[in-house]
Write a structure and sequence with these properties.
The complex is a heterodimer. Chain A is an alpha+beta fold. Chain A is 65% helix and 12% strand. A 5-stranded antiparallel sheet of chain A has the order 3-4-5-6-7, with no helix packed on it. Chain A has a 4-stranded antiparallel sheet with strand order 2-10-9-8. By secondary structure, chain B is α+β, with helices and mostly antiparallel strands. Chain B has 2 domains: 1-33; 37-128, Beta Barrel (OB fold (Dihydrolipoamide Acetyltransferase, E2P)), CATH 2.40.50. Chain B contains 3 helices and 7 strands. Chain B has a 5-stranded mixed barrel with strand order 2-4-5-7-6. The chains are: A alpha+beta, B alpha+beta. At the A-B interface, helix 12, strand 1, helix 13, strand 2 and strand 7 of A face helix 1 and strand 1 of B.
Chain lengths: 650, 159
């Protein structure tokens, strides 16, 4: 009975969403204020019902109701309770329900926080969000309900959660990623509402900006955690595979990053308006495309989900409606948009425009590499795959001008600049970066290739330029403390974001250049040496977990005969699926990770082991966290709060 | 030419140069990195209507099922060798390193590597799917026509 209540709650939520889509939009069209005023309560109502339904799914998972197909396929009675909760989004149907939870929560949040908006705009934003909600709810109810029963023949035990997903990273990765994906639907709704209203001015950018920032911050965090999860859990120390599923999350991120910068220009200077709207539409469309890629199984991926052509077709049609509809509206309205500001070539406007160009080109490259195999196959030309080096080469080329520009742009002023005084500063910074990089790399490594050196210089250059600009801005004030106070949180957000990127660039470069790995066969007592560390294999222990058993290879790590740590590299066999899982042992550090994976048992008590030494790999996720902090810091900016208050009084 | 037009011409040329070099680079990088997919029979008999065979030294991907009993491990090193099959001939895969957790005899896998003899591939990557019901869709398609010959071991294929 309880699962049926969950389903019914979703039906009610969809009914409310349908009303949310129709009433306010119709009200805004006819100027009927009463209809428009219904929007916030409808938004809250549909959110409550979706949350209720999600609560029921969690409840039936925790109580091991294996009459429900979803629970039987993705959970088991021996699963620890926190992984039972995780299993509610570990499979397709549950993941889509989680999407709905996010979608309706964002909609409710917008309803609550948009009191300062004029009713026409507020109603339209909520109406568009309601439409998106209907699209996904219909999908859930029609072809992907997590409440379907397995009656009358149901199993007494579930099939367990995929062991790979039994990891702390997996508990938070999907919710964060979906927060980001769905959050971009708010930017999208603002863009569509503004197009419908025909008023694309900087007030629109002002309203849209904090929402976009938060969505983008969540997306950043989600991608970062995903990369960390892959590193820790897949057992081969990789952190990014250019897999279609990863690309699906990277593309919206790239466009959203472009959107943030473009929104800044639109808010401050009133230019790039139509371009900004287009980016907002593109960012969310790419989220939908990503969902299509991941859920339809049209692309062969190492970690694509269960595949179903009907589902793919639905998402594709929804994608076509959303993209087609919004682009048609865009085409009809964009001619009315006029830019007001004027600017010269040497200006911050142009620098940010270039930033956008690079980010869009990067997106197109990922899109090409992801879709080409699919198109190739659909054309009947046989199946191909695009190798990882393609993406690596293209990004290695793109990052050079991008990073150089990133050091220069924050120092430029709006409208126009005289370049010569700045040029002196840049030369000093370039010289400093070269010297610092040389000191850093040549003191740590015997061999430094030209490419590694160049890429590291880029990271150092970003940090130095950011600091130089910071000092310059602080020195304009009477005292240093006064200077720091006056900088404003938006500025600090930029500093965080840019320095975070520098960390990522440095980490990617140095990890790629200086990671070493060894696959060895070891007997108890054997010692393998890798870089300055010695690894002594002390044999294997039997282990037993709540839902798995297996072996743990015990390895003592020494450095110059000094004890560093003892690591347990596990090989687990999960009871229900009879799946083997390598649980790598990682000794993490700020400058290096030691990473051990246990292989198979060989003859005479020997085991195969894979040992990795990965310098600076942690900086990648540190950088990702810094970047996402930038988005959250902006939220605390008084400019946005003060404005909201002021407008509320009017 | 007046200065304004000159400036415009310069901008247009810069844009064309930018787009041109970007497209050129992309195509070049693409051409270097497209790996064709073969099944064991396609590798031996040729692929497509013209029955094109890959050349020695070519990088490619191959997908098939691991023939039960064909996995030979070296006693002292991590070298491993196994045979792949779809509907007809066998192809040998050589690999050095630890195989993925889900690598099992009778399981569908995809390997990436270099062709070193007409039917031997030196793989640098072997992929098996996380999901126990998994068969690479390319492999599933290749074996579609042979359902009646389903081998004795459980393939978990979708039939």
């Amino acid at each position: 009975m309880i699962p049926e209540i969950g389903y019914f709650a979703l039906v009610l939520a969809m009914a409310l969403s349908l009303l949310l889509c129709i009433f306010p939009l119709w009200g805004a069209y006819t100027g009927n204020l009463r209809l428009m005023r219904a929007a916030p309560s409808l938004a809250l109502g549909q959110c409550l019902f979706v949350l209720f339904s999600f609560g029921i799914l969690i409840y039936i998972t925790l109580t091991d109701d294996f009459t429900v197909a979803y629970v039987a396929h993705h959970s088991s009675s021996t699963l620890p309770w926190y992984y039972k909760v995780t299993s509610t989004w570990g499979g397709h149907e549950g993941a889509i329900l989680l999407w709905l939870v996010m979608q309706s929560s964002w909609t409710a949040l917008v309803a609550l926080m948009s009191k300062s908006l004029p009713w026409v705009l507020r109603a339209r934003v909520l109406g568009v969000l309601g439409f998106l909600g209907v699209g996904f709810m219909l999908y859930t109810l029609w072809m992907s309900s997590p409440f379907e029963r397995l009656l009358p023949y149901f199993p007494v035990e579930g099939r367990d959660l995929n062991p790979l997903l039994q990891d702390p990273g997996m508990i938070i990765h999907p919710p964060l990623l979906y927060m980001g994906y769905v959050g971009l639907s708010v930017s999208f709704s603002f863009a569509i509402a503004a197009l419908l209203t025909g008023k694309l001015d900087n007030t629109w950018a002002k309203w849209s900006r904090p929402w976009t920032m938060v969505a983008w911050a969540f997306l950043t965090l989600g991608i970062t955690i995903g990369s960390w999860w892959a590193y820790a859990e897949l057992g081969w120390g990789g952190w990014w595979f250019w897999d279609p599923v990863e690309n699906a999350s990277l593309m919206p991120w790239l466009v959203a990053t472009a959107l943030l910068h473009s929104l800044a220009v639109t808010e401050k200077r009133g230019v790039f308006k139509s371009w900004t709207v287009l980016l907002a539409i593109a960012a969310f469309s790419l989220c939908l495309l990503g969902t299509f890629i991941v859920r339809s199984g049209i692309i062969v991926s190492v970690h694509a989900f269960a595949t179903d052509p009907d589902r793919g077709l639905y998402i594709l049609s929804f994608l076509a409606v959303v993209v087609g509809g919004s682009l048609a509206l865009y085409a009809a309205r964009v001619s009315q948009v006029h830019s007001e500001g004027r600017y010269r070539f040497a200006s911050r406007e142009v620098a940010l425009w270039l930033n956008n160009i690079f980010l869009v080109v990067a997106t197109l490259i990922v899109l090409l590499g992801t879709l080409l195999p699919m198109i190739h196959k659909e054309l009947g030309l046989g199946s191909i795959s695009i190798g990882v080096p393609f993406f690596n080469q293209m990004f290695a080329i793109l990052i050079v001008p991008f990073a150089l520009l990133l050091g220069i742009a924050p120092m430029l002023r709006w409208k126009q600049n005289t370049l010569s005084p700045l040029a002196k500063k840049w030369l000093v910074n370039v010289a400093l970066s070269l010297v610092a990089t040389a000191a850093w790399l040549f003191s740590s490594y015997e061999q430094v290739s030209a490419l590694t050196f160049m890429a590291t210089v880029l990271a150092v250059w970003i940090v130095f330029s950011t600091i130089a600009d910071l000092l310059q801005k602080v020195s304009l004030q009477t005292s240093i403390s006064e200077g720091f106070k006056r900088l404003g949180l938006s500025y600090w957000a930029m500093v965080l974001g840019h320095v975070g990127l520098a960390f990522v660039i440095a980490s990617v470069t140095l990890t790629s250049a200086y990671s070493v790995e060894r696959a060895v066969a070891m007997k108890p007592g054997d010692i393998a040496t890798l870089n300055e560390y010695q690894y002594r294999f002390d044999g294997v222990k039997e282990i037993r977990g709540p839902n798995y058993s297996g072996h743990a290879g015990v390895v003592t790590v020494l450095k110059n005969d000094e004890f560093i740590t003892e690591l347990y590299a596990e090989k687990r066999l999960y009871d229900i699926g009879m799946q083997f899982m390598t649980e790598a042992a990682i000794d993490d550090g700020f400058f290096r990770d030691l990473y051990l994976a246990l292989g198979e048992q060989m003859s005479q008590g020997a085991w195969s082991l894979r040992i990795y030494h990965k310098p600076y790999v942690r900086w990648m996720w540190l950088g990702g966290i810094l970047i996402s902090l930038a988005g959250f810091v902006v939220l605390a900016d008084k400019r946005y709060r003060r404005r909201v208050k002021k407008e509320a009084q009017v | 030419m007046n200065p304004r037009r000159k400036k415009r011409l310069f901008t247009v040329l810069a844009v064309i140069f930018g787009i041109g070099s970007a497209v050129g680079l992309t195509l070049y990088a693409l051409q270097e990195n497209i790996n064709l997919f073969y099944t064991p029979s396609e590798l031996v008999n040729g692929k497509g209507p013209e029955l094109e065979k890959p050349t020695i030294g070519q990088k490619l991907r191959i997908g098939g099922m691991v023939v039960p009993g064909s996995v030979v491990r070296d006693e002292t090193s991590l070298d491993v060798e196994f045979k792949l099959i779809d509907t007809g001939p066998l192809v040998t895969i050589r690999y050095q390193g630890i195989l993925p957790d889900l690598f099992r005899e009778g399981q569908g896998i995809v390997a990436q590597g270099t062709l070193i003899e007409p039917d031997v591939i030196e793989a640098f990557e072997v992929l098996a799917k996380h999901d126990e019901e998994y068969m690479p869709s390319e492999v599933a398609e290749a074996v579609k026509g042979i359902k009646h010959e389903k081998p004795k071991y459980n393939l978990n294929s979708e039939n």
